């Protein structure tokens, strides 16, 4: 762990640490960059009080930047909350009950204030049969569907964005399966999550979120998944599951679970083949935030056994993961559909992705996509 992360973790644990390298402008700049990457500026502003921090050598520039970022996130949160209330009320009137999960669900159920859980969008899952109606409802409110890969097999989500006159944007990630991977997509169904979902009155009378047990399983799974799939910060792709805001989610969820919920968590982690993924996530929370977790939980997750398919999938190269997803689809019709959608995405997606290409000739764009894909796969297989 780098010095910046050591200092960040100590601050997020509430230990009031002294500034590590007084007078070092490069360290200060690097610390601020890592705060952005880890998504913890508002949380740091909440936990690190200015006067004691200055006395401990914290640069005023760091405290000021966190302060202004907290204000900016507060303004965004107020508008985002209003939009979510509008969306959820509309869907409730249609008889549709989405389940919120990941960032927004945790912001309103775990954190002292939702602004402390920074995020770029809101994730919600609906029944497969409701996705078309929900799409039409969101578009009716002014949300625009982002140009992205779509189909019956290649993607089980769509992003809808509302951009306001002041340039502020608000995105909703609409899911009808929990993950785009064929191997992971059916780990949690909408119906399963909805059956255990809990009300989220802090957000809306129509809001429901994944229960703490499901939320912890999903948080561990989400963190692990980003070791191989990109997460974008200021337009830059990062491949890592070490973002501290994700680990802090796991920390807060672990503190919240009751003994009965831990028992349920262990059963589901075993049933769904997520023991190794959860062990890694909880272990990182212990390392970063000294999270208290019963030894029986750690021992149960770590017990010997055959390697879990999910663990192998998460640690595989992109080429290997695509093959495993191909094998996971039932029937040759499904396999052919996945292959076709991978090779020939919709024209709208192709023109958006290659808008820098002077040619609008679709066959050429497909050839370019295949060339780029082969180059990327060869590079990935060499790593």
List the helices and strands and how they pair.
Blueprint: H1 3-12, H2 25-38, H3 41-47, H4 50-55, H5 60-93, E1 99-101, H6 103-109, E2 122-125, H7 131-140, E3 144-145, E4 157-163, E5 169-175, H8 190-196, E6 198-199, E7 208-209, H9 212-225, E8 231-233, E9 236-238, H10 244-256, H11 259-271, H12 275-289, H13 295-302, H14 309-314, H15 318-328, H16 332-343, H17 347-353, H18 362-382
Parallel strand pairs: 2-5
Antiparallel strand pairs: 1-2, 3-4, 4-5, 6-7, 8-9
Helix pairs in contact: 3-5, 9-10, 9-11, 9-12, 10-12, 12-13
- Rg, rounded, reads 22 Å
What is the number of helical segments per DSSP (H or I, 4+ residues)? Answer: 18
Number of strands: 9
Q: What's the CATH class label of the largest domain?
A: Alpha Beta
For the record, the CATH architecture of the largest domain stands as 2-Layer Sandwich
Q: How far apart lie the N and C ends? A: 22 Å
Mean pLDDT: 88
Structural classification:
alpha+beta
Which word captures the global form? globular
CATH topology of the largest domain: Beta Polymerase, domain 2
Q: What's the order of the H and E elements?
A: HHHHHEHEHEEEHEEHEEHHHHHHHHH
Largest sheet, order of strands side by side?
A: 1-2-5-4-3
The percent of residues in helical segments reads: 55-70%
Query: What share of the residues does DSSP label as strand, in percent?
Result: 5-15%
Could you say how many structural domains there are in total? 3
Tell me about the largest β-sheet: 5 strands, mixed
Unreliable segments of 5+ consecutive residues: none
């Amino acid at each position: 762990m780098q010095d910046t992360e050591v200092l960040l973790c100590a601050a997020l644990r509430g230990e009031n640490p002294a500034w590590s390298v007084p007078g070092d402008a490069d360290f200060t700049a690097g610390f601020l960059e890592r705060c952005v990457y880890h998504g913890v500026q508002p949380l740091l502003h909440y936990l690190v009080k200015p006067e004691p921090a200055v006395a401990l050598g914290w640069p005023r520039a760091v405290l000021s930047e966190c302060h202004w970022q907290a204000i900016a996130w507060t303004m965004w949160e107020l508008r985002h909350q209003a939009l979510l209330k509008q969306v959820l009320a509309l869907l409730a009137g249609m008889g549709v009950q989405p389940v919120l999960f990941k960032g927004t669900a945790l912001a309103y159920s775990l954190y002292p204030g939702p602004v402390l859980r920074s995020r770029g969008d809101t994730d919600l899952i609906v029944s497969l049969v409701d996705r078309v109606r929900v799409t039409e409802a969101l578009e009716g409110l002014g949300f625009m569907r982002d140009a992205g890969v779509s189909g019956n097999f290649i993607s089980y989500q769509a992003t809808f964005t509302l951009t306001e006159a002041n340039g502020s944007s608000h995105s909703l990630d609409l899911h009808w399966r929990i993950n785009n991977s064929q191997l992971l997509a059916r780990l949690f169904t909408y119906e399963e999550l909805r059956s255990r979902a809990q009300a989220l009155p802090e957000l809306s009378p129509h809001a429901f979120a994944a229960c703490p047990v499901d939320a912890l399983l999903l948080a561990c799974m989400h963190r692990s998944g980003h070791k191989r799939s990109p997460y974008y910060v200021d337009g830059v792709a990062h491949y890592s599951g070490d973002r501290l805001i994700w680990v802090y989610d796991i920390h807060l969820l672990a503190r919240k679970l009751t003994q009965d919920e831990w028992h349920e968590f262990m059963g589901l982690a075993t049933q769904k083949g997520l023991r190794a993924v959860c062990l890694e996530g909880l272990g990182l929370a212990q390392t970063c935030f000294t999270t208290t977790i019963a030894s029986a939980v750690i021992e149960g997750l770590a017990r010997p056994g055959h390697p879990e398919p999910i663990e192998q999938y998460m640690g595989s190269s992109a080429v290997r993961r695509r093959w495993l997803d191909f094998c996971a689809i039932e029937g040759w019709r499904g396999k052919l559909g996945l292959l076709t959608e991978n090779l020939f995405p919709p024209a709208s997606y192709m023109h958006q992705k290659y808008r820098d290409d002077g040619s609008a000739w679709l066959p050429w764009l497909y050839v370019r996509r295949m060339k780029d894909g082969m180059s990327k796969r060869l590079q990935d297989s060499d790593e």
